[in-house]
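Predict structure. Chain length: 258.
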Amino acid sequence: MTILPKLHEIYNSAGLRPLTGHSTQHMFDWMDAPFTRFFDGNSIVGCAGLSLFEIMFLEHLRDYLKPKNILVIGNAHGWSTIALALTFPKAKIVAIDPYELGIELTNKLSAENKLKIKAVVGLSPQAIKPSCAEHLDGPVDFVLIDAVHTNEAIVTDFMGCREVASDDCFYLFHDVVNWKMTEGMKQNQAVSGLQSRLLTRTPSGMAVLFNTIPDELAAYLECFSDNTQLLSAYRDLVRQTMVKDTFGEALASLKGAA
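Prediction complete.
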């Protein structure tokens, strides 16, 4: 069963209506349209968290992975952290972020919904070791990194996470393509010797690093990846295509309708 209705219910009940999953073409070519923010009754709050499509990708990882200890670097309003807790209900989760209001919200939602989350106010990499030692039972076997979006930062975050992670830990990085962090990912892969996949078919261009995974999971990841040469050729064809505001035309046709 999908986690999506429960995830939305948790935030709606807290007075935060998720705004997520919109096409950039429907939102004046705004790059962040697919990603998650919230309406609190007065204004739009939050930063661009995992999109609806990326949450859907994430939840199916439970068919292939059974992590016991999860680490989140970059919690914000807790959207991804809560999604991970719903996806892997038996896992313990530590989430680290300097944003105090987001940490408070995440711990509140976790307590209200009996989730195994401990959100901690802190900075990566300094807070990683003490937070994991205090709140987890063993080495980390799943990491989500979605914090400062620079090549230097994702290398620093990854290196800090490796110190508390198992050899078979699965690492998921958000916003790699959109924030031009492929060089940082190359460095992480080279230093660690882990296998990598750039998930070009996710809205933010996520990436993963891993040691060994089941063949079934490898096949799943391939569904979200592309052959680079084929993708480049496809983009050249798209560049030659006239783009129209089909969504705007559809809305205009509905004016005056009940």
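Summary: The mean pLDDT is 93.
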